[in-house]
UniProtKB/TrEMBL annotation:
Stretch forming the signal peptide: none
InterPro entries assigned: Cbr1-like_FAD-bd_dom, FAD-bd_FR_type, Flavoprot_Pyr_Nucl_cyt_Rdtase, FNR_nucleotide-bd, MRET, OxRdtase_FAD/NAD-bd, Riboflavin_synthase-like_b-brl
Name assigned to this protein: Ferredoxin reductase
One Pfam match: FAD_binding_6
Record keywords, A-Z: 2Fe-2S, Iron, Iron-sulfur, Metal-binding
Cofactor(s) listed in the protein's UniProt record: FAD
Ranges where the FAD-binding FR-type domain occurs: 1-102
Length: 239
């Protein structure tokens, strides 16, 4: 894969700490929902820093859309979310990854488990489902600390039939929320997921602890490991 020039064409706040960036990328070959890219920033003295970010939308011409969580003491994310302006250029390469992708030709129902900013590649799958012709049943369980950290809130509320979304607030729930506050549990998967005998395609993305716990719960509930695909990220102090 070669490095390509990416020009920022749009920038908008997703939450108080997350920003969605839209780039036009020279000769972009397209990508699948769930894949990611590498970004590289190079300083005038030649020092460079490189980070990986998931794409938030399915393929659309030369467009690449990323939602990036700002890490205050990071090297790359603060520059991308706070300093980069429309018209600025960076280096990008991809698409990367062939395992953690949703194939729209697969008729199996889909179960998405998102922890925090792990929603980003799963949102690309949701958007691909919305745009596609096949009406594959989708269920998304989205675990976040509080409503202030909810990404894509308006869009998730307006999804068409056949895509069900449930939320788990681990620290503080919004007014009117009737569910339990706390971490994801096996009961959540029973109430809002797909039964194992439906043989759903399962995608889990989020911090390492969330992903490991969710995958273990899926296996304990009878889901076969080959049907469980995971994407995780560790401490983000250098993002």
């Amino acid at each position: 894969m070669k490095w390509r020039v990416a020009t920022l064409t749009d920038k908008r706040a997703e939450t108080s700490t997350a920003t969605t960036l839209t780039f036009e990328v020279d000769e972009w070959p397209g990508h699948k929902p769930g894949q990611h890219v590498d970004l590289r920033l190079t300083a005038e003295d030649g020092y460079s820093a490189q980070r990986s970010y998931s794409m938030a939308t399915p393929a659309d011409g030369n467009k690449v859309v990323l939602t990036i969580q700002t890490v205050n003491d990071g090297e790359v994310s603060p520059y991308l979310t706070e300093m980069l302006e429309v018209g600025d250029r960076i280096e990008l390469r991809g698409p990367i990854g062939g395992w953690f992708v949703w194939d729209a030709s697969n008729p199996a129902p889909v179960l998405l488990l998102a922890g925090g900013s792990g929603i980003v590649p799963l949102m690309a799958m949701v958007r691909a489902r919305v745009r596609g012709e096949r009406r594959t049943p989708f269920r998304l369980i989205y675990s976040i600390r509080s409503s202030e950290e909810l990404m894509y809130g308006s869009e998730l509320r307006m999804l068409p039939g056949g895509i069900d979304v449930s939320y788990r607030y681990t620290r503080r729930a919004p007014d009117g929320y009737r569910g339990r506050v706390g971490r994801l549990t096996p009961r959540d998967l029973v109430e809002d997921g797909w039964p194992a005998d439906f043989a759903p395609a399962c995608f889990v993305c989020g911090p390492t602890g969330f992903v490991e716990a969710a995958a273990d719960m899926l296996v304990a509930d009878g889901h076969l490991p080959p049907r469980i695909k995971t994407e995780r990220f560790g401490p983000t102090g250098t993002a």
